[in-house]
User: Fold this.
Amino acid sequence: MKLLIIEDEIQLAQSIMNYLTDDGYKCEFASNFTQAIQKIHSYEYDCILLDLMLPGGDGLALLDELKAQQKQDGVIIISAKDAYEDRIKGLEHGADDYLVKPFHLPELAARIFSVIRRRKFNNSNILKLNELTLDLLAKTVQVNQQSVPLTKKEFELLVYFIGNRNRVVSKNALAEHLSGDIAGMLEDHNFIYAHIKNLKKKLHEAGCGPYLKTVYGTGYIWQS
Assistant:
């Protein structure tokens, strides 16, 4: 899962990034309004953590920009503003949640997971698609009740495909999802092909149907 942390307190942002990276998320960072706008225009995120008081602009304006672009990224406001009027305004502008500073990182992680689960997986921790079962919390996969050992990258890819099922996912989107904003600097995307090849092989050998398909010249699609 890919996150954007928009926060001008560098020490706090680094703490959040370290914690969430250890928790399995791919994290990117913006420290001011201009950087945040560039990130939002260029990439998609599963969830954005948004500070309201940013150098160069108001965080609420970023919510308006997301809405104007019809982006579907989840948003949690993280702010020192603790008045109920601020919380109401943030939620009215399109945020999914509002967490007042200071907060505990495990609570932040739980709220992120809750937003992503609600938006992409019908608010369920267990995903069942025919013979395939994914446990999002335990990060395990079963086919016909038999465990399928996947690497971290393979599991990330599988969750990403299922979260975007029946949509063609481009190779660039996959590279950004796995590598973040350094994807554009990579010489090639061969590592994606290797991960997908291994994922397909493991699922097929476990008895899973051929739901993951190549759309030649475009990308991949999960159809089930």
About this structure: The helical segments are 10-22, 33-42, 59-68, 84-92, 105-120, 152-163, 171-179, 190-205. The chain has a mean pLDDT of 90.
